[in-house]
Write a structure and sequence with these properties.
InterPro entries: Peptidase_aspartic_dom_sf, Retropepsin-like_bacterial. This protein is α+β, with helices and mostly antiparallel strands. Helix content is 19%, strand content 35%.
Length: 404
C-alpha cells in the first residue's frame, strides 16, 4: 500500500488480512499483542470508534518499522478527518524524524512529509480545538439546484447555504461522495480563511482527474442552519465548494430529500435499504449492499454525482454520447468525457428497479470488498433522489435509503 494514496480523494477500500496472535496452549501471550495487524483492528467496531489517543497507543505497539510508519500515516489521516489541526504538528514532525531514512527513500512519502512548511505548522499548532455545536431543534433547510440564482450551471446538484463567522455566505454542494470538505479559493478568501500558504497537497478524483492542486486552511466558523463548526480544517482549491461527508456526518440526525435537508427529523419507522457507514483514513463512504444485473456490489450514495446510477461495470449498451464530467461546474470543454449508457436491473434490499445507467471508461470508481473479494462499485447519484430519500444517523448506526 502506498501511504500517500490515503490522502487522495479517490475512494479506496483497504482491507488487510493480517495474522492473529498465536494463542496455543503453553505459549505465552504478549500483554499488548504487538504483532496484531493494525489495519485489521482499525476495521473492527472497536477501531472504527477509537479515539485519536487510542489509535496512537495501538500504533505504538507495532514494532516493525515499516508497519509502524504505515499505521502512523493512518493516524495522521484520522487527525485530518477529525479536524484535529492542533494535534498535527507535533505528531507529524515526530514521525518525520523517527522514519527519516524510509521517508527519504520513498517519493510519495517524501511528498507527504513535505506538505507543510514552518508557517503552516505554526498556524496549525496555535489553532483552537475543533468543535461542533449541533442544533437540538427540528430545522428544515432549502436545497438549491444551482450555485446561485444568477448562474445556471449545466448540471443540477444539491447546493446548500453555508455561512462563515464574518457573515459571508456561499453555496456548497451537499456531497456525500466527497470524503472531505473543499472550499473554493475565492470563497475561502471572502470567508476570512487562515490559508496555510506554505502547504501543498495533490489529490485525484474517481472521474479520472489526477495531480489536482490544493492547499489547506482554517476557517473560524462554518454554519449550516443554526449548527456551527468551529476551527475547521479544510482543503482549498479552484474547484466548487463541497460540504463533504466529514462535516455532514457530524451534523447529527438528518433527512435529505430532493428539496430539503432536515436536521433532527422525526424518526422514520421504515428502513428500506440499510446503509453502512465506513471510513478508512480520509476515505469515507455511505454504501448499500446491492446487485446490478445479478452481480453483487456496493452502491455508494454520492449526492455530488449528477447521474441516477454510475457503474464501474458495463452492461447491455444502449448508445454512446458526449457528456461533461459529473460533479464539476461550470462545465468546460476540456473536462468533457465520453460515457456509455446501459440498461439493467438494480436490486437494493426491498427494492428491484429496471434502470438505465452510465459507464465512464477510464473512471476510477473505487472497488468494494464483498464476500472476501473486491468487486466493482456503483454510485447512486443525485437524480436517484427523484425516487429515494436519505435518512442519516451515523452516531446511532441507523442510516437508511428509503423509497419515496
Amino acid at each position: 500500500m502506498k501511504p500517500l494514496t490515503l490522502f487522495l480523494f479517490v475512494w479506496v477500500a483497504i482491507f488487510s488480512p493480517g495474522t492473529l496472535a498465536d494463542t496455543r496452549l503453553n505459549k505465552p501471550v504478549p500483554l499488548y499483542e504487538p504483532e496484531q495487524d493494525f489495519n485489521q483492528w482499525l476495521a473492527s467496531d472497536q477501531g472504527q470508534k477509537a479515539s485519536l489517543t487510542q489509535m496512537r497507543e495501538r500504533c505504538d505497539r507495532v514494532l516493525d518499522a515499516a508497519k509502524n510508519l504505515d499505521c502512523s500515516v493512518t493516524v495522521i489521516a484520522r487527525m485530518f478527518e477529525l479536524k484535529a489541526a492542533n494535534q498535527l504538528p507535533d505528531y507529524y514532525l515526530a514521525i518525520k524524524r523517527k522514519h527519516a531514512p524510509a521517508i527519504e527513500a520513498d517519493q510519495e512519502l517524501n511528498m507527504l512529509f513535505s506538505m507543510f512548511g514552518e508557517q503552516s505548522l505554526s498556524t496549525l499548532g496555535t489553532t483552537g480545538d475543533f468543535t461542533v455545536k449541533k442544533t437540538s431543534q427540528r430545522e428544515v433547510l432549502r436545497i438549491h439546484p444551482y450555485a446561485s440564482d444568477y448562474f445556471i450551471a449545466g448540471e443540477q446538484l444539491p447546493f446548500i447555504d453555508v455561512a462563515a463567522a464574518n457573515g459571508h455566505s456561499a453555496r456548497f454542494v451537499l456531497d456525500t461522495g466527497a470524503p472531505q470538505t473543499r472550499v473554493n479559493v475565492d470563497t475561502a478568501r471572502q470567508m476570512g480563511i487562515k490559508l496555510l500558504t506554505d502547504s501543498h497537497y495533490a489529490y485525484s478524483t474517481f472521474y479520472g482527474e489526477g495531480n489536482l492542486s490544493a492547499r489547506l486552511g482554517i476557517l473560524d466558523s462554518l454554519k449550516v442552519g443554526t449548527s456551527e463548526f468551529r476551527n475547521v480544517l479544510v482543503f482549498v482549491s479552484d474547484r466548487d465548494n463541497l460540504l463533504g461527508l466529514d462535516l455532514i456526518s457530524k451534523l447529527g440526525r438528518l433527512k435529505l430529500t430532493r428539496k430539503t435537508l432536515e436536521l433532527n427529523p422525526t424518526l422514520s419507522p421504515r428502513c428500506d435499504s440499510p446503509i453502512n457507514y465506513s471510513r478508512n483514513d480520509l476515505n469515507q463512504r455511505l454504501a448499500i449492499a446491492a446487485n446490478l444485473d445479478n452481480r453483487a456490489t456496493q452502491a455508494i450514495v454520492d449526492t455530488g454525482n449528477v447521474d441516477y446510477l454510475t457503474s464501474a461495470m458495463p452492461g447491455e449498451q444502449i448508445n454512446v454520447v458526449q457528456a461533461m464530467t459529473p460533479g464539476n461546474s461550470p462545465p468546460e470543454t476540456s473536462d468533457r468525457h465520453r460515457y456509455q449508457r446501459f440498461k439493467g436491473v438494480l436490486n437494493l434490499p426491498g427494492q428491484s428497479l429496471p434502470i438505465t445507467y452510465k459507464y465512464y471508461p477510464g473512471f476510477t470508481i473505487p472497488p468494494s470488498w464483498v464476500q472476501g473479494r473486491y468487486v466493482p462499485s456503483v454510485l447512486l447519484g443525485w437524480r436517484a433522489f427523484d425516487d429515494f430519500e436519505l435518512n442519516l444517523d451515523i452516531e446511532a448506526g441507523r442510516s437508511c435509503f428509503n423509497k419515496v
